[in-house]
Structure formats: C-alpha cells, structure tokens
Write a structure and sequence with these properties.
With about 130 residues, the protein is mainly alpha-helical. It has a domain of about 70 residues. The protein is about 65% helix and about 0% strand. It contains 4 helices and no strands. Helix 3 runs antiparallel to helix 4. It is elongated and about 55 Å long. About 25% of the residues are buried. It comes from Streptomyces triticagri. Keywords: Membrane, Transmembrane, Transmembrane helix. InterPro entries: DUF6113 (IPR046095).
Length: about 130
C-alpha cells in the first residue's frame, strides 16, 4: 500500500469512539421515544417512530462515513427495545400485544439493517481500479 493513498478503514481515535457512544445513547433514546409514540394513532405514530429511527440510523452512517455509524444507534435502539419488551413482576410492559408493536419491532430492525447495508462507504481512488484494461 503506497503512503499517498488514505486507508479505507479509519483507525479508532478517542473522538471517534466518543461519537459511537453518543450515537449508541441517541439510539437508546430513539427506541424509548418510539416505543411511547408508536402506540398513538396507529398508522401515524408508527410511521413517525420508524422515520425517526431511520433518520438517526442514516444520519449516523453519514456522520461517520461508514456502516458502523448506522450500527451504533441501531444497537442502542435494539437494546432499549429489548429492555422495554420484557415484562416486569407487576405485569406491566410498554408494548401491547398488537400489530403496531410487532411492526415497530420488526420494522426498526429492518430499517437498521437497510441503513447499515446502504451506508456510505468510501470508494477507492481511481488509480486502484481497473478501467477495462
């Protein structure tokens, strides 16, 4: 690898780690907010919750210019949603047994995977590619 080309993988620096932690916390907050909003006015609350999560996942991907930028808030979202789905000893839980709750759980996971898959990945410079020769 020549010293003139930048590496395709960014090294872990303290600032980058801090951004990942902040995105993880933002994902947890989005999971909590979405869990509370998705039950209100069935299609509208669910769409609002999923669009908010999608915006955060895509924004994290664009901010860090990597797929890991979408995975950090996705992991925080998933952890929060899993914590909220477990029933307590009193019998209370946030998610009701209905179509909207299942669509939120599965839709949020699908949105996180889509944003991580389609995340912005830097392309190699033109000198490293073959142009039909």
């Amino acid at each position: 690898m020549s010293p003139s080309r930048p590496p395709l993988v960014e090294p872990l620096r303290p600032g980058r780690i801090a951004v990942h932690i902040l995105l993880l916390l933002a994902g947890a907050l989005a999971g909590l907010a979405g869990a509370l909003v998705q039950g209100g006015l069935f299609p509208g609350g669910l769409l609002l919750a999923l669009l908010g999560a999608a915006g955060l996942f895509h924004g994290g991907s664009r901010l860090l210019e990597s797929r890991a930028g979408a995975l950090s808030p996705g992991a925080g979202w998933l952890l929060m949603v899993l914590l909220l789905t477990s029933s307590r000893s009193e019998g209370d839980f946030v998610f009701a047994a209905g179509l909207g709750s299942y669509l939120y759980l599965l839709g949020g996971i699908a949105v996180a995977v889509i944003c991580a898959t389609l995340g912005s990945v830097r392309q190699p410079d033109s000198s490293a590619t073959r142009l039909g020769r």
